[in-house]
Structure to design on (71 residues):
């Protein structure tokens, strides 16, 4: 899951940086550029499990439970 989160953050930073770098675009040019970009979609399924056993302590586990991302 960390790889997916890192990749999403990099993609968001790259996209936002390119939009701000070309701030002299008109609204119609920006709209055309946005329409030509691919759609990115997905979902995050995160599991957090806490087990507490009397006399044996407790354990906290976390894992990816089938997160997806697509273009």
């Amino acid at each position: 899951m960390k790889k997916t989160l890192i990749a999403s953050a990099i993609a968001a930073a790259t996209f936002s940086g390119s939009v701000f770098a070309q701030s002299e675009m008109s609204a119609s040019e920006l709209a055309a550029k946005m329409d030509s970009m691919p759609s990115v979609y997905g979902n995050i399924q995160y599991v957090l499990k806490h087990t507490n056993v009397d006399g044996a302590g407790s354990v906290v586990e976390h894992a990816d439970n089938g997160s997806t991302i697509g273009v």
